[in-house]
Structure prediction request, 95 residues.
Amino acid sequence: MMLTICAFTLDCTLTGQNCISAERFLVHSRIYDRFVQGIASRLQQLQTGASCSGTRCDFGAITMPAQADIVEALVKDAIASGARVCVVCDMLMGI
Prediction:
């Protein structure tokens, strides 16, 4: 689905690199399930780590403990507001 590819690129590829990265997507209910499935599928394929380690790395790790706390608070707030978790990473295992 082309929309999923575009959304993924806007949201993930530019994260932290561009002040105009997408933060939210308004998705029509007719395509919502396919959209979420497409994004989740792409997210599950990403690898985190240090690019200098010689292994594949799509995203670097969060380097500041305070930022990890902010991300955790955002995820908890989203879940409390009705969001459902579709992809779980190590950091979010306890949430």
Remarks:
- The chain has three helices and no strands.
